[in-house]
Amino acid sequence: LGGGLIALIAGLTVVAAALVALPAVADGRLAGVELAVVVLTPLAAFEAVTGLPLAAQYRQRVRRSAERVYEVLDAPVPVREPAAPAATPASPFPLEVRGLSARYAGAAHDALASVDLTLEAGRRIAVVGASGSGKTTLAQVLLRFLEARAGTFRIGGVDASALDGDTVRRFVGLCAQDAHIFDSSLRENLRLARPAATEPELRDALARARLLDWADALPDGLDTLVGEHGARLSGGQRRRLALARALLADFPVLVLDEPAEHLDLPTADALTRDLLAATRGRTTVLITHRLAGLEAVDEVVVLEAGAIVQRGPYDVLAAADGPLRRMLARERESVGGPVGVTGVHVSA
Ligand SMILES: Nc1ncnc2c1ncn2[C@@H]1O[C@H](COP(=O)(O)OP(=O)(O)OP(=O)(O)O)[C@@H](O)[C@H]1O
Ligand SMILES: [Mg+2]
Predict the structure, then answer these.
(1) 109 CB near ligand 1 (under 6 Å)
(2) What pLDDT does 340 receive?
(3) 62 and 180 in one domain?
(4) 275 with 245, same domain?
(5) How many whole angstroms from 5 Cα to the centroid of ligand 1?
């Protein structure tokens, strides 16, 4: 629009200059050749400014980009890296969290409050709690994506804040709530976890995530393309692929954040069962808001508003009057509700 307007004004100016100059030529005050100069000068002048509307547009766009860059630059650094990292411990065990509180920048309350947690080699802990209770926040702290506000987090006796973030993340791996599946083949998605993985290793990871039979039945096998965000896979297959990738990475401590979220209950419970079988003997923190299958873990930790309100073996907590029993009752109620209506029978 700006460009059009300038062209129109330029045209009108030329016409006006011609109208003013023509009588002068007729009177002999202006030579015919000079008429051309009078008429063309405004044209030349406008040529100099035709770029301005475009420049104004670009300026706006650049300003918006700059704002985005400044947003990133000005954002508080969530975790400070140590200037001189401590020596990497030989083993991450025991991995100990003591009196740990954490708060997001700008938040009025702690997302985690005085949390204690100890992971020995091979121990499996389930962290359960309602939405917003701080489960993902705990994962963030364990991976040093979020700094503790108070308390300690030690890895093999070394304060985690004295270690490089990347060192911590070689010990503690995450299968995130929204694990990304890349628009590539099954094989390439797995190899991200371990580029040098051999064919038997890839197949073993798939087998443990109970995907191997399905993958082998595909015409292209492991070379099957999964589509953008894994669009050509079912929800359950996407989760199993993310799980296979996490198993292949073989982290000393594996944190699984809601691996069965958004799946229908039978699919979710089958996945939980399989992943508990696949992680037997491996140090695991399983974050979930569903309780089915948790008999298999060593300790269940119940979070409420960032604080641990109950902990212990599943069958002890399920037998006692307390938060876990109440969660269990709610879960059984909801299974009796919507799932029964659709005709799918799930035994509670
Ligand atoms: N990036 C963030 N910035 C500010 N507050 C956050 C952020 N992420 C989470 N919170 C807040 O911290 C609290 C704990 O959130 P968290 O994500 O840990 O809950 P959760 O138990 O994982 O929930 P869900 O089951 O829905 O995944 C919530 O009150 C939430 O609003
Ligand atoms: Mg979460």
Answers:
(1) no
(2) 39
(3) no
(4) yes
(5) 52
Task: Report the CATH number that the domain containing residue 226 is assigned in CATH.
Answer: 3.40.50.300
Q: Are residues 37 and 131 in the same domain?
A: no
CA 307 – ligand 2 centroid, Å: 15
Domain count, the chain: 2
Confirm whether 80 is domain-assigned. Answer: no
Domain span at residue 23 reads: 2-74
Give the residue, by CA position, lying nearest to ligand 1 atom 31: 132
Does residue 132 line the site of ligand 1, with CB under 6 A? yes
311 domain residue, yes or no: yes
Q: Any idea which ligand is nearest the CA of 107?
A: 1
Q: Which atom of ligand 1 is nearest to the CA of 303?
A: 21
Residue from 137, 145, 146, 256 to probe ligand 1 pocket by mutation (most atoms less than 8 Å from CB): 137
Residue 177 CA: nearest ligand 1 atom is 27
Rounded CA separation 309/8 (Å): 74
- 301, burial (CB in 10 Å: exposed 0-12, middle 13-18, buried 19+): buried
Ligand sitting nearest the alpha carbon of 137: 1
Ligand nearest to the CA of 132: 1
> CA torsion sign, 232 to 279 to 299 to 141?
negative
Q: Report the nearest-CA residue for atom 3 of ligand 1.
A: 104
Is 136 touching ligand 1 by the criterion CB < 6 Å?
yes
Do both 161 and 225 map to the same domain?
A: yes
Between 55-64, 135-144, 154-163, 299-308, the lowest mean confidence (pLDDT) is in: 55-64
The mean predicted confidence, pLDDT, of the chain is: 90
Give the dihedral sign, CA 302/173/267/295: negative
Statement to judge: residues 154 and 225 lie in one domain: yes
**Helix then strand then coil, % of the chain, to nearest 5:** 50, 15, 35
Distance CA 54, CA 115 (A): 57
What's the distance, CA 332 to chain centroid?
A: 31
Q: 139 and 8, same structural domain?
A: no
Which tens digits make up the pLDDT trace of 209-248? 999 999 999 999 999 999 989 999 999 999 999 999 999 9
The whole-angstrom separation of Cα 312 and Cα 290 is 16
Domain membership of residue 327 (yes or no) is: yes
Query: Is the C-beta atom of 104 inside 6 A of ligand 1?
Result: yes
